[in-house]
Structures are given as C-alpha cells and as structure tokens.
Amino acid sequence: AFKAVLLDSLRFIAIAKRSFHHNHYLLAENIVHHFDLVIDKNRQKLNLEELLYLIETLNLEQRLALAKLFVLGMLIDGQLSRRDWNVLRILDKKDMIINFDYKTLKKWEHNFTQGKGLTELLQSKLQ
User: Fold this and answer.
1) N or C terminus of the chain: which is more exposed, having fewer CB within 10 Å?
2) 92-126, pLDDT tens digit by residue?
3) Contacts 24+ apart (CB under 8 A), 33-39
4) How many domains does the chain have?
C-alpha cells in the first residue's frame, strides 16, 4: 500500500507544482528507483481527498515520511509560492502535517537555495 501511495503522492506534488523542474524529476526518479516502484500509467489520478484517505491508512512512520515528501516537493524547486503554501495548509488542516509555519518553510527554502541543503527539514518532526 505504501508504494502505491508514494507514487500517488509524487504525482500529486508534480500536478500541484504545475511546471516541470529538474529537481522534481530527480527526486521522483530517485524515489522510484530506491523503492523499486512500478509505474502504472492506467492508474487513476487521485484528488487530494482520495489521497489523504489512503495516507490515513498507513502507519505513523510512513505518514511522517510522506509529510516530509510533500514539504520537500513544494520546496525543492527553490520557490515556495502562495499556491504551494495553500496546499501545505490543507494538509496541515487534515492533520497530516503539523508544527510548521510559513516563516519556517521560507527559512528551509532559503537554506536550500543558498546551498545549505535540507538537513533541518529532513531532521524535523513534522507530526
């Protein structure tokens, strides 16, 4: 179940960002290879409610990993737009991601774009 939700999450992030960015491609490619994911081109694209329902069925460790993936997916192109922030706020309201604010996200974005990496994000406790 986790692998399917992982692919659905990657697809959702790509659609939410709306434009291609090489960092997103590399992130998705590495996750697909690392988890040996099989891409089913016939799988229906899920809306946010459907995706969140599936995420709720996962264990806590898996949900935390996906929470970080969503934040990383919104930050990895170096631009946290208001639209990205709104997507993360929806996830926050659904209790998927908590304990972050816009200022923290912008700090992570700044650190990433300044070459300081994403260590703070990856070591954070989002839930």
Assistant:
1) N
2) 777 666 567 788 888 888 998 999 988 888 887 76
3) 35/3, 35/6, 37/3, 37/6, 37/7, 38/3, 39/7
4) 1
CA gap 70, 19 in Å, rounded: 16
Place of tokens 């946010």: 48
Q: Maximum distance among all alpha carbons in the chain?
A: 39
Tokens of 24: 């997103």
Range of 66's domain?
A: 2-123
> Residue 127 corresponds to which tokens in the numbers above?
């839930």
Closest by alpha carbon to 45, among 68, 86, 16? 16
pLDDT 10s digits, 23-73: 888 999 999 999 999 988 888 888 888 998 998 899 988 988 888 899 899
Tokens 């099989």 found at: 38
